[in-house]
Structures are given as C-alpha cells and as structure tokens.
Specification:
mainly alpha; globular
C-alpha cells in the first residue's frame, strides 16, 4: 500500500489524527515502501535472531470498510493479502512461517473496536482474538527456542 497509494495514507493520517501516535507518521509510512524494505533486507539479509512470520490474509467479507478500497487494489496482485501487504511481502526472508491469520491487517494489529477514535466506525471487522493469537505465538516460539533443530 505504501507504494500503491501513498497520498491515500497521508489523507488517512490527517483525517484520523490518532492522538496516541507520536512522531512523523507520514515519514514512518514512507519507510514501509518496497524500495525501503528491499534496501533494508539487502543490508541485513540474514536475521541475527530467530525470526518468525505470521502474515494476515483477508477477503471482502472480513476486511473493514475503511480498508476495502486498498484491499480491492491489492487484490490485483493476488488474493493472499491483508489490505496493506501481500502475503509475500509480509513474510520475512529466512524466518519460520507460522501460518496465516485470517483477518485484515488492522484487525490483527490494532484494537480499534475498543477505541474512542473516529476510525472505530470504519473498522467494522476489527474483532479478532489478538490475545489468543499472541499467546499461541509466544508458546510456539518458546518451544522452538527450547528445541533448536
């Protein structure tokens, strides 16, 4: 999304002006472009610590209305995407793949459903068992680190 519609992201950042987000969100968003990510991965091709990937995948039925326009755009690159990233871009090279979470990007990352922010109405598919997902991931990583192969 950072490459496809950077102007849209700038508009969302201004529109929702989330008060708890500090720093220059526009610059932070621009750092997510494929060019920036590929440059970083070129400089650091091998993770220095065990690394895990769990991309999200959504479809029209479980993507919040605020993200549907971007989901539609990214769907031209394939159906495995979460409205912000394609599955391929969400998997860190050299990481262990944990599977895919079936929800849009925001549902996995941000609890807008409990927010008083104006974005809450547009995040209508935001309910997700984040705590259970995090616990499962932590349990897997602990077991994996205890039993290196």
């Amino acid at each position: 999304m950072a490459d496809a519609i950077p102007g849209q992201a700038d508009r969302w950042i201004r529109q929702y002006s989330l008060p708890n987000c500090q720093g220059d969100l526009t610059q932070g968003f621009k750092s997510l472009s494929q060019t920036e990510r590929h440059a970083f991965l070129s400089r650091y091709p091998d993770p220095v610590v065990p690394t895990y990937s769990l991309p999200a995948i959504s479809d029209k039925t479980n993507t919040s209305k605020v993200l549907l326009q971007v989901w539609q755009l990214l769907s031209t690159f394939g159906d495995k995407q979460d409205s912000q990233l394609t599955q391929r871009d969400a998997i860190i090279p050299g990481s262990k793949y944990l599977g895919s979470a079936l929800a849009d990007h925001s549902a996995i990352a941000l609890p807008f459903e409990t927010s008083n922010e104006s974005i809450r109405s547009g995040a209508d598919k935001n309910h997700y068992p984040r705590t259970a997902l995090l616990e499962a991931m932590v349990r897997f990583v602990i077991e994996d680190l205890d039993n290196p192969k």
